[in-house]
Amino acid sequence: MSDTSIFDPSQNNESQENNPAEPSEVTASVPDGAGGEMKVTATKNGVKITAPPAKGGNNAALGDNRPKGIAESFVGLPMGILICGPVDLSRRLTHWQAKLALKQFIELDGTAKLRVLRASKLITRLDLPPIPKGSAPLRVPVLVDHRDLLLKRLARHQFHFDDIWYDLPVSPKRYYKRLDFPERDCPLSVSTSARLINIPTHLPPERLQKALTIIKEYL
Predict the structure, then answer these.
(1) For residue 219, what are the contacts with CB-CB under 8 A and spacing of at least 6?
(2) What percent of the chain has pLDDT over 70?
(3) Model-level pTM greater than 0.85?
(4) Distance between CA atoms of 35 and 161, rounded to whole angstroms?
């Protein structure tokens, strides 16, 4: 099942008949990526992100100097702004989907720390620049020579890294030709995306030792 189908309301068959008392809004507190919390509120009019003021500063929307958190870094919008259109609160995740999502939220800090630890080990093993402070990468990006040859060699050892994020200057690949991207004007983007592979952090580095040894030959 794809990520989109997990959260696709059309996949949920629960109706208002099974949930007669529909709430006017739903609010949840989640980590903001900067050591605090942000509040996500869903109403019938949309979804809003808010956060308490940083220590010694004003609200992030007013321009304080706190580190960028999830709301600013990933949503890309100031705190307190409406980030999507109307929400149909009569549609919900199924029980098992909601239970899984809640579990992952609860374990988010521990998961992030584990990703940082594994990414740091991968980076040390490959002599790469350190990861940016405050990030918890899902994958470690690596620039290699002769990427296609490397991927085939890794596959022979049962390491399948050909699912590459950003293998073109602009994703997704299926729409790239429609974009008419000016490759001549952006040669660095083109050359970088042609050399990029991603090493996942959901696997312990100890299981990737053979792969890392092979990858080092192509750096």
Answers:
(1) 126, 127, 142, 143, 144, 145
(2) 63
(3) no
(4) 33
